[in-house]
Amino acid sequence: MNYSKQRELILKTLQENPVHPTADYIYSVLKKELPTISLATVYRNLNQLAEQGKIKKIEGLDGSSHFDHTIHNHYHFVCIKCNKIYDIPYEVAKDIEQKVSAMTGLEITDHDISFKGICTACQHKN
Ligand SMILES: [Zn+2]
Ligand SMILES: [Zn+2]
C-alpha cells in the first residue's frame, strides 16, 4: 500500500472517530483493517497531517497527544471521570484576545483554553 493511501485511511479513521483520539487509539482501529501498519507510521502521518493544517494536534490535556479532525477554532472540555474530550464553541470567549490585549498591552498571537469537569453522561450516572 502506498503512503498517500495510508494517510487517506488514517484521516478517514480520525473523521469517523470524533472523540479526539490518540495515535494509539487510531492505530488499534486501523490495525483491524491494515494488519501491516505500524504505530510509528500512524504517528508520522498524523503529525504530517497536523503540520499541513488538515487536522489539529492537541497537547497538554492529559499527557498524551490527541488528534482532532475539526480544524476551525474551538476549545476543549476534558471530563475528569471518563477522560473524554468534548468540543466547546469558540464563541464562549469571542473577543478574548482583544480584551487581554486591551487590558495588558500585550500583543496576542494565539491562545488556548481548556475546561475540566464532569460531562453530562457522567453526571447522570450518579
Ligand atoms: Zn464523562
Ligand atoms: Zn476538538
Keyphrases for this structure?
single chain, 126 residues, alpha+beta, Arc Repressor Mutant, subunit A, Dna Ligase, domain 1, 2 domains, 3-stranded mixed beta sheet, two-stranded antiparallel sheet, 5 helices, 5 strands, binds zinc ion
What does this structure look like?
The chain has helices spanning 3-16, 23-33, 39-51, 96-104, 120-125; strands spanning 56-58, 66-68, 74-79, 85-89, 114-117. With 126 residues, the protein is α+β, with helices and mostly antiparallel strands. The protein has 2 domains: 3-68, Arc Repressor Mutant, subunit A (Orthogonal Bundle); 74-125, 2-Layer Sandwich (Dna Ligase, domain 1). A 3-stranded mixed beta sheet has the order 4-3-5, with no helix packed on it. The protein is globular and about 55 Å long. The protein starts with a helix and ends with a helix. The model has no long low-confidence stretch (mean pLDDT 90). The structure holds zinc ion (ZN) (2 copies). One zinc ion (ZN) is lined by residues 20, 68, 70, 74, 76, 87.
| Gross morphology | globular
CATH architecture of the largest domain: Orthogonal Bundle
Strand order of the largest sheet: 4-3-5
What is the total tally of β strands? 5
* Structure annotation, total helices: 5
> Cofactors and ligands present?
zinc ion
Class by alpha and beta content: alpha+beta
Number of domains: 2
State the helicity in percent bands: 40-55%
Write a short abstract of this structure.
The chain has about 130 residues and is an alpha+beta fold. The chain is built from 5 helices and 5 strands; from the N terminus they run αααββββαβα.
